[in-house]
Amino acid sequence: MNIIRIEAPDDPRTAAFRDIRERDLTGREGQFIAEGEVVLRQLVSAASRCRPAAVLLAENRLGGLADVLALSPPAMPVYVAPQAVLDGIAGFHLHRGILALGRKPDVAALPDVLAGLPRTALVVLACGIGNHDNIGGIFRNAAAFGADAVLLDRQCCDPFYRKAIRVSVGAVLRTPMVVGLDATAAVEALKAAGFAVLAMTPSAELTLDAVPPAARIAVVLGAEGPGLPADLIARCTPVGIRMSGGFDSLNVGTAGAIALHHFARRA
Amino acid sequence: MNIIRIEAPDDPRTAAFRDIRERDLTGREGQFIAEGEVVLRQLVSAASRCRPAAVLLAENRLGGLADVLALSPPAMPVYVAPQAVLDGIAGFHLHRGILALGRKPDVAALPDVLAGLPRTALVVLACGIGNHDNIGGIFRNAAAFGADAVLLDRQCCDPFYRKAIRVSVGAVLRTPMVVGLDATAAVEALKAAGFAVLAMTPSAELTLDAVPPAARIAVVLGAEGPGLPADLIARCTPVGIRMSGGFDSLNVGTAGAIALHHFARRA
What we know:
Chains A, B: Residues 122-261 form the tRNA/rRNA methyltransferase SpoU type domain. The structure is a homodimer of 267-residue chains. Chain A has helices at 20-26, 37-44, 66-70, 83-90, 110-115, 132-144, 162-167, 183-192, 230-233, 252-263, and strands spanning 2-5, 31-35, 51-58, 77-81, 98-103, 121-127, 149-153, 177-181, 196-200, 216-222, 237-239. Chain A is α/β, with parallel strands linked by helices. In chain A, 30% of the residues lie in helices and 22% in strands. The first copy, chain A, has a 6-stranded parallel β-sheet with strand order 8-7-6-10-9-11, sandwiched between helices. Chain A has a 5-stranded mixed β-sheet with strand order 1-4-3-5-2. Chain A folds into 2 domains: 2-103, CATH 3.30.1330.30; 110-263, 3-Layer(aba) Sandwich (Alpha/beta knot), CATH 3.40.1280.10. In chain A, strand 7 (149-153), helix 7 and strand 8 form a beta-alpha-beta unit. The first copy, chain A, is elongated and about 60 Å long. Chain A binds chain B through residues 47, 137, 140-141, 143-146, 169, 171, 174, 241-251, 253-254, 257-258, 261, 264, 266-267, and chain B through 47, 137, 140-141, 143-146, 169, 171, 174, 241-251, 253-254, 257-258, 261, 264, 266-267.
């Protein structure tokens, strides 16, 4: 294990971890910052599609992470610093005491991802989701219900943003995805690939229970508030979730979870 | 309409709105602060169990709220202030520009609430939920699926905390609730009232689809991470949500939503 002690916040070896919040806003070319033990375990797990490039730990966290670090590449730098130095590098008090620098997977194109899906498949297409909590929740639920891929249109925020990864409990790191899509083109590509494309929208008359069975299902989710654009819904089968009537309001991630639970393969 | 112009942040008439964040931490005896238009609309709606005591608005929000204010008690003070004065009162930049002071409903006792439930009933019992986002999400989902009441044990955080109300989209203000319960006593009271008491827990062998029908259903939710205590689960019927197997992780509010959707009355 390549343990390197860091004594000063301006040590150039930890430059990638510096001023995290400011650099969250600009993004990191091909890389991302993950935080906390649960996410680090996902990052180094066999199911991860990402690779760890380095970790930076508070001194008191090193002992508890031996099993995780044993799964990491032996040459990977494990920077260890006193809490105050760690906070100085990050630019805020990092109470979790665990940061990892990861490398994103190669960018995937929609036709390639669709071509690689099994005959029975479940995917999510998220459109215009600009909230990192909701993007993280969508990935968490996609992983929980075994969705084969998550597709994001170009109005969605970056799923590799630190908070989105954290809210996803690391699911962002393991779930096949395509980002930056044109929503209309994605819907048409899904239909051409034999998917029943279901636009989740509160106004739909067809409810989940009444959706005809299909081997390939795509669940399309839009932003809370505006919802999916009418012209996109018109290209899909609109589907609603039966609610009580007096208070028809669900978080978008929650609505997606209910749909994914409904359509998940009975293993 | 009782519109009162406020020109200075230290105007004593707006004392109840002062230093909101600090006072969030101590609670407000019998009162709460709500923020934003969506929550204000819930507060003054016919379904609300709470009453508005006063509102404080940024000048530019007054025009758009005429219909909401018309539903409020005519004598209720409508304080209107320039944005800078509003920010000075609240102690932070209040970009929503809308605050309301509300009165909580009378405290309810569990036997009274149970005695008032219909023969076919759906309730949530939340145990040890210390996260305001999760409490808010549980109330939002309870309202969406027409749950008759939400019961909180004494380890849950305050549902009238400002952020919990906001995340609930105002559902906290309309949903019958009992707070401060002993979880074990609440489970036993539910059983005595003829409820099938279902402890949602990932380890359960019985999944939602296999739960026998019952007229009265109580969904018991525990905190993410620790989950429900084993001795409490032993008093209930443990129920799980079928997941993909590789990533068995759902947010507690999301798990509750899936269960409530499953058990909600087919209207």
